[in-house]
């Protein structure tokens, strides 16, 4: 596992969704303190909107890329399914090569 690198969701879709959801929670929290139910509802709507925006952006190709990895354990034909894992982030391969050469 030492050689595997994961993307951890660093994509425009993930950042945008998280930012919108954070704003929605902030709105909902502020209106909770002020005891305004409609404001809390507005915050919940913004949170839901953030999730939808993230999914739409991912569908547009701005999300995390995935690659198919074959299982490393189990005999051939054992029925073990291949797992889908994130592709390496941009620049990680160059860093690995630079580290390996030094």
UniProtKB/TrEMBL annotation:
Biased composition (Low complexity): 80-91
Organism superkingdom: Bacteria
Pfam families registered for this protein in UniProt: DUF6704 (PF20447)
Bilayer-spanning residue ranges: 12-32, 38-57
Keywords in alphabetical order: Membrane, Transmembrane, Transmembrane helix
InterPro entries listed in its UniProt record: DUF6704
Region (Disordered): 80-102
Record protein name field: HGxxPAAW family protein
Phylogenetic classification of the source organism: Bacteria, Bacillati, Actinomycetota, Actinomycetes, Kitasatosporales
